[in-house]
Target: FAD binding domain-containing protein
Amino acid sequence: MYPFTFTKARTERAALAAGARGGRYVAGGTTLVDLMRETVERPTEVVDITALPYRDIAASPSGLRIGALARMAELAAHPTVITRFPVISQALNLSASPQLRNMATIGGNLMQRPRCLYFRDVTARCNRRAPGTGCAAIGGENRGHAVLGTSTRCVATHPSDLAVALVALDAVVLLRSPSGDRSVPVSRFIRLPGSTPDVEHDLRPGELIVGIEVPAGAHTARSGYLKVRDRQSYEFALVSAAVALDIRSGVVRDARVAVGGVATVPWRLPEVERALVGKAPGTRLWAEGSARAADGAKPLSGNAFKVELLTRTVERQLTAIGGVA
Model:
């Protein structure tokens, strides 16, 4: 670990000032501290923001507002989240370990860095860590890597389960800086690698995540998260699926489907959604819709199995949420 200055921000103003001079924000520290130990991250100043008032979880008829410093475990256990937004609660409970969920914050979860072994090996080529050096995963060990949203510069999957659920529900990130507030959909906040994989988030210098807003609807209560992985606990997804459906009078009125473990960002499936809306729910429809889940997939040498696994996972979760009638 390289030397750094540690600052504890007692006020929002102090935090923003520290961020403006290049300080790195830390709360739970479950990602940043690990990367500092591995010398992947080398900030010169770390700013503790845990004293800031961003821990509230507030529900209203129009939706859910989540403070950026709310802990993963707190949000997962919130009664309103369990009943009205079960896909969020389930995604959180399938993440990490109980110990990490008790420490990690919601804002920090969105700021996770890739779990690619080449990204975390400072001797390996990685365009995210060292732009212009190449991507060792493209021709190397890539079983766990992405088949969607890749580029010639990066094929690392996004690690967050929560972000997949938030993308499915059209959630918005609330940001604050000395120049004012702005909001960005989670689907745009986490950026595709393209030619600049080192730019992972739509976050301006010194900007601070203060919260997340999730709009409510008939689909949010009928939702759930499925995670397929090599082992049942403390493992990242090979494929995951967040599904939310509004089914009334024998017709699918609205469908939200997003997947994780297979793309460089939480990946929405609009073609699957369009195939479902306006039709009668049932086994046949779920199979027809899920057949579009892997459209555009570009498997690598070690992960072609993810194409079929993705289709099967989406179909399984559509059936679980929508039923077989």
About this structure: The longest helix spans residues 305-322. The CA atoms of residues 82 and 89 lie 6 Å apart. The mean pLDDT is 97. The domain at 218-322 is CATH 3.30.390.50 (Enolase-like; domain 1).
